[in-house]
Amino acid sequence: MTQNATTAARGVNTPPEYVPDLSHQRRWWILVVISLSMLMGVLDGTIVNIALPSAQRDLGFADADRQWVVTAYALAFGSLLLLGGRIADLLGQKVTFLVGLAGFATASMVGGAANGFAMLVIARAVQGLFAALMAPSALSILMTTFTHPRERAKAFTVAGSVAGAGAAIGLMLGGVLTEYLDWRWTMYVNVIFAGVALLGGAALLHRTPRDMSSRLDVPGTLLVSIGLFCLVYGFSNAETHGWSSFATWGMLAAGVVLVAVFAWWQSKAVHPLLPLRVLLDRNRGASFAALFVTGAGMFGVFLFLTYYLQQSLGFSALKTGFAFLPMIVASSFASAVANNVLVARIGPKPVVPLGMAIAAAGLIWMTTLDLNSGYATQVLPQLVLVGIGLGTVIAPAMSLATSGVDAADAGVASAAVNTLQQVGGSIGIALLSTTASDAATHYVSGRDPKDPGVLAQAGLAGYSTAYWWSAAVFVTGLVVTALLYRRGIPQQDANAAPVVHV
Fold first, then answer.
1. What are the extents of the domains in the chain?
2. Fewer beta carbons within 10 Å, N or C terminal of the chain?
């Protein structure tokens, strides 16, 4: 029985949108299952970062290759999210969600058993592929399960909080597993999470009807997926082949052209993969830009600071995981203040650029770190400052990313938000890895490459260069968001489609 039918049967005159859908009594257990899947997806990003130095020593891959362990997942996830959302519409939410979970668990098992670099990277890419199926269908399931606005807001708050905690849990769990078991368990642990969610989803979820009116935008899917791959591969290729390489500039040029053609095609397609109306609102466009920038800068901080703490300061994996916690706490606190207090009173135009400035200042401060830096006095303050900046940017941007979006576009808007942040992270890591490698190579030039002291200083030169470039990314974000966001307090629509960071 539908919600409207239930209301009519009871003879209640209350508008349907204010009547809870009580026909599905298991909806709160479904929230647990969906939250667990979101936790797993977010956790997977930070848990692997902590384990990466150990995996590199075990499998023996070069510094120039390590970025692909992170980038392979983010690239596959980000470039296929829009497709995953459309497949959920075509095949049904339950089927897509369960297939995503099963595939993610299988890829995690293969990654944990990897006997070489190539096997690990392929497994990570396949993880991203199945995560791109799982994440949009999870969001869609929440929206169709919780039809009452207040219940829906509560459900998305819970799911968003769990997903937000995934970064901190990943840091701690990655340290514990790497320290006391093996880095491979940072992959195997996904099998446990996915197994529980798979059993719960199979038992609790209802089959949803396929949207027979919708069609897959095959040209759009090919254009955006190949275009984004070319962009990230071009930046990554620069690290190993240099900026003078034809392959580097050829891939970058191809990526720009394909993405531009994709944007043109979306204005012509009958069933566009990403309707341009989702992007054209100024506040929404500014929010997408802000999330792209934070993805590019944030992923770089996690990667290079992890290596700095473990290789330069000699931290264990466990100690490294806990070292990041103050940043997560600061980010969570700043998110609450920025979204619930500042934006509600003065609007996003001064708030988000301020967050960009704070994050940039923290990164510039990080360039002063050396081999003798103490954590409490010379690492912790910068981490907290960057955390405050990120929280001040991400929460308002997430909140406004789907403001005013029609219910029919909610899934694709959510997918677009996460796509931009993941692709931003992929491009950021590729670009920062390239500049860091160039700086380290330049430092070693003319010095003894076998001297441990020289190598340690070369590593510092690379990290410092990466922080400078990250700061430049945030300064760019400051300018863009200051120009794009409208003045004043945004009008909030109670029925606007919510979004969760996955």
1. 25-214, 272-502
2. N
